[in-house]
Specification:
The chain is an all-alpha fold and 272 residues long. It has 12 helices and no strands.
Length: 272
């Protein structure tokens, strides 16, 4: 009887693995399909490939328009992620340390940008920024992307703080250290992987966001996703496939970095 049960469990496990692997390839297939097209020697995004060439990568890296879009994306992404990391870490620490009425409401409010449809968010930002002349400016886009990235920082830092031993704070204070020094020397080194993890998420959100840029960005704030969107509408070129492949590589690098930080955070918590 036990052998039959074991055989059934093995069969279900195999079925689960097959379904999981099939679902994974179903989701990844569109991404994998675009990569070979970036090496196509033809003028159109079609299979089979006419030949293999790096001409579209050359067109991408030697184009002033594409390079300008990358520069804009990096500037906006880095600054927005820095602001989001700072604000999100403070918010997560405050919610973790304090206990006050309305705490759940504030937590839900901080996570609202993740739930509200992006179109509604972009339209609201346009009408809110317009009286302050923040539309068609880098400042407006940086603030908009910082708001989008802050919830991810709040989530990751809160998850890291959930395993933090508060007696370490009390021990530092009892030894005469100021609250600022305890935060700098005790708390931050232990939660740093979670903080950096959230910052990477905030950067990736800014890097791929296009709807907000379409609504409040101007001609001088054309980011890489917006340039790709415009290219698809106006002139479909394999250069777009090259740009998409580069973004895929960046996303994979960010995921690998995030996984490294997650494992490092787990090791630090285990040692603690």
């Amino acid at each position: 009887m036990s052998g039959a049960v074991t055989g059934t469990e093995k069969a279900w496990r195999v079925v689960l693995y097959v379904v999981a692997i099939g679902g994974f390839f179903f989701l990844v297939a569109p991404i994998l399909a675009i990569v070979p097209l970036s090496f196509n020697d033809g003028q159109f995004l079609t299979y089979p490939l006419r030949g293999v060439s790096l001409r579209w990568y050359e067109d991408f890296f030697f184009s002033g328009t594409w390079m300008s879009s990358i520069r804009n994306s990096l500037i906006i992404g880095v600054v927005a992620a820095t602001i989001a990391t700072f604000l999100g870490t403070l918010a997560a620490a405050g919610l973790w340390l304090a206990d006050f009425p309305g705490k759940r409401f504030i937590s839900a409010f901080l996570l609202a940008p993740m739930i509200v449809p992006m179109v509604i968010y972009a339209v609201g930002l346009y009408f809110y920024f317009a009286p302050f002349d923040l539309t068609a400016t880098f400042t407006g886009l940086i603030l908009a992307h910082a708001v989008l990235g802050t919830p991810f920082v709040v989530i990751t830092v809160t998850a890291t703080l959930s395993g933090f031993d508060r007696t370490l704070i009390r021990a530092g204070l009892s030894l005469g250290a100021s609250p600022v020094r305890v935060a700098r020397s005790v708390v931050f080194p232990l939660i740093a992987p979670g903080v950096i993890f959230g910052g990477l998420f905030a950067f990736s959100v800014s890097l791929e966001e296009v709807i907000t840029v379409l609504f409040i960005g101007g001609p001088n704030q054309r980011t890489l996703p917006r340039e790709m969107f415009s290219g698809i509408r106006e002139n479909i070129s394999p250069t777009i496939a090259a740009a998409a492949t580069i973004m895929i590589v960046l996303a994979v690098l960010l995921l690998l970095t995030a996984e490294f930080l997650r494992r490092r955070s787990s090791r630090l918590q285990a040692k603690g």
